[in-house]
Design a protein that fits this description.
Number of strands of chain B: 2
Radius of gyration of chain B: 25 Å
Radius of gyration of chain A: 18 Å
Helix content of chain B: over 70%
Order of helices and strands of chain B: HHEEHHHHHHHHHH
CATH topology of the domain at 39-83 and 152-325 in chain B: MetI-like fold
Number of strands of chain A: 10
CATH topology of chain A: Rossmann fold
CATH class of the domain at 39-83 and 152-325 in chain B: Mainly Alpha
CATH superfamily of chain A: P-loop containing nucleotide triphosphate hydrolases
CATH class of chain A: Alpha Beta
CATH superfamily of the domain at 39-83 and 152-325 in chain B: MetI-like
Structural class of chain B: mainly alpha
Strand order of the largest sheet of chain B: 1-2
Helix content of chain A: 25-40%
Strand order of the largest sheet of chain A: 6-7-8-3-9-10
Number of helices of chain B: 12
Distance between the termini of chain A: 32 Å
CATH architecture of chain A: 3-Layer(aba) Sandwich
Largest sheet of chain A: 6 strands, mixed
Oligomer: heterodimer
Order of helices and strands of chain A: EEEHEEHEHHHHEHEHEEHH
Chain lengths: 253, 326
């Protein structure tokens, strides 16, 4: 096992009802690096991502086998508190999903449900989270405006700030820029690059250039299997597997 | 040829619209013309006099208002709670699939959980069909049920336990039992409208909340309910306004022909606008003298119902425009 592995997965299988969608995944995801999951639609990369904060629990008929640990703790052990797990493992979704509340309240949400009441402390964390998500300058004068009035790219950065506010160590991003224009996408990518100094980031993306730009390591999934996983540069220049090569050269997709 | 068919279709459709509008205008016009003339300060502030041929309808207005408030207190929390349970807590995949998954899970860990899930889905299916059937029950049957269950069963049991022998306080028609009966009638509307409103809250938002470490109840309380509140309120108001005009359920459960006093306790009987209309039109000693009073009462009842509906519509359109601008 890799010594600095934050997330460690052994023989992980995932089922929707009777159909098996992930087959024996083995992977070690290092701490404070960006790991990208790539692969064609339906390859299981998003399902695997959502297994890391147990968001799949809410899907009827979902079932897992195998071992998935963060800092050595088995996420699917019976005594695991899913609520506190999700506070440690933040998530940003494909479609930005701010609450229909003010910008401020969106960020304060996770703090309030965590039991924080101190107004000054909340103000402080809201500001810090917005800074980290590179959004503070654009919204500092209208924190009480509706989050839905922001542009798509700003909404997605707000969702990142909201996830950061509860102080996770892992940040999962499920195609966070797929609905954004190139400029907004670039901002998200720059942000991902900066955030990795403090967070372990796993990002699912359809866009191979994006994986190549932002990630340190890349995992290529196909048909529910992990085909190849190595450092991003090697995977994109000299892939070991024929399937990977075919995919990254655009022979299928 | 096609063109002629087209014209016939348009004409028929337009005529049916005109017909419906005409009926509505005649009914409302008739009531407004005759009813507005009967309105006066005395009419809305005085009790009936001279064998219901003079005076006003003040006690009936008070009785109707008290009844509607009590009914709301009984129906809305119960209906909303039921809908939340049905929509947020029972298995979304439905009974057939939940049962099939349980059947397929032989010799696998977690089978017990799948069984409970299938059981919960069964319970939800039964509850939903019960609610749907409840909505189809004629209102007079609700009245008889209220008499049999609330008054004769529950009410008398309370009397036996709390009162001197022979003393009747709870075991008779009253505001309380009439409100409970009407609440039953209103429940299906509230449940269906609330479930509909819950459905409009995007799954994305639930996921966003759960991913931040919220429990399911926190998610419901802080995200789902605020998002669906306008829909719930609209549905509740429409249900209530329908219940407010119903007479059959309160016939046997507490509405009084004439009372010289206003109700003070929930165990008192009460006068009611809808019931008063029935009394004025069937029990009057002098039909001609009663007519203006009758029109006036109908007008007031109609106006109150309309006001309630209008509140519902305003709430709905306000939230719609708020969603648009933001």
């Amino acid at each position: 096992m890799n010594t600095n592995a934050k997330i460690s997965v052994r023989d992980f299988n995932f089922f929707y009802g009777e159909s098996k969608v992930l087959h024996g995944i083995d992977i070690d995801i290092p701490e404070k690096e960006v790991t990208a999951f790539i692969g064609p639609s339906g390859c299981g990369k998003s399902t695997f991502l959502r297994s890391i904060n147990r968001m799949n629990d809410i899907i009827p008929g979902a079932r897992v086998e195998g071992r998935l640990t963060i800092d050595g703790q088995d996420l699917y052990a019976p005594n695991v508190d899913v609520v506190s797990l999700r506070r440690r493992v933040g998530m940003v979704f494909q479609k930005s999903n701010p609450f229909p509340k003010s910008i401020y309240e969106n960020i304060a949400y996770g703090l309030r449900i965590g039991g924080l009441r101190d107004r000054k402390k909340i103000d402080e964390i809201v500001e810090r989270s917005l800074h980290r998500a590179a959004l503070w300058g654009e919204v500092k004068d209208r924190l009480n405006a509706s989050a839905l009035a922001l542009s798509g790219g700003q909404q997605q950065r707000l969702c990142i700030a909201r996830a950061l506010a509860v102080d996770p160590d892992v940040l999962l991003m499920d195609e966070p820029a797929s609905a954004l224009d190139p400029i907004a996408t670039q901002k998200i990518e720059e942000l991902v690059y900066e955030l990795k100094t403090n967070y372990t980031i796993v990002i699912v993306t359809h866009n191979m250039q994006q994986a190549a730009r932002v990630s340190d390591r890349t995992a290529f999934f196909m048909l529910g299997k992990l085909v190849e996983y190595r450092d991003t540069r090697t995977l994109f220049t000299t892939p070991a597997e024929k399937l990977t090569e075919d995919y990254i050269t655009g022979r299928f997709g | 040829m096609n063109r002629i068919g087209d014209r016939i279709a348009i004409t028929t459709l337009a005529l049916s619209v005109v017909l419906i509008l005409a009926i509505l205008i005649v009914i409302i016009g008739n009531i407004v013309i005759h009813g507005a003339g009967a309105l006066s300060w005395e009419f809305v502030s005085q009790p009936p006099r001279a064998g219901l041929t003079e005076g006003g309808i003040f006690p009936a207005i008070v009785g109707t208002a008290a009844l509607v408030i009590l009914m709301t207190i009984a129906a809305v929390p119960l209906g909303v709670a039921t809908a939340i349970y049905l929509h947020e807590y029972t298995p979304a995949e439905g009974l057939a699939l939940a049962w099939a998954r349980f059947r397929a899970s032989k010799n696998r860990p977690g089978r017990r959980k799948l069984f409970l899930r299938a059981l919960s889905a069964l319970l939800a299916t039964i509850t939903r069909s019960a609610v749907a059937n409840l909505a189809g029950v004629p209102s007079i049957v609700f009245g008889l049920f209220g008499l049999g269950f609330f008054i004769q069963f529950v009410g008398r049991a309370i009397d036996r336990a709390t009162q001197e022998p022979g003393e009747v306080v709870w075991g008779q028609g009253s505001l309380l039992w009439a409100a409970c009966t009407l609440a039953l009638l209103t429940l299906p509307t509230v449940i269906v409208a609330t479930e509909e409103a819950l459905r409009t809250v995007p799954q994305d938002l639930r996921e966003a909340s759960l991913a931040l470490g919220a429990t399911q109840w926190e998610t419901i309380r802080r995200v789902v309910l605020p998002g669906s509140l306008p829909g719930i309120l609209t549905g509740a108001i429409l249900g209530i306004s329908r219940g407010a005009g119903e007479v059959a359920p309160i016939l046997f459960t507490g509405a009084a022909y004439y009372l010289p006093f206003l109700p003070h306790r929930i165990t008192d009987q009460f006068m009611h606008l809808g019931y008063h209309v029935l009394i004025l039109s069937t029990q009057s000693p002098d039909v001609e003298a009663t007519k203006p009073l009758l029109y006036g009462t109908v007008f007031v009842l109609l106006a109150l119902t309309f006001l309630l509906n209008l509140t519902g519509v305003v709430i709905r359109s306000r939230t719609r425009s708020r969603l648009k601008t933001s």
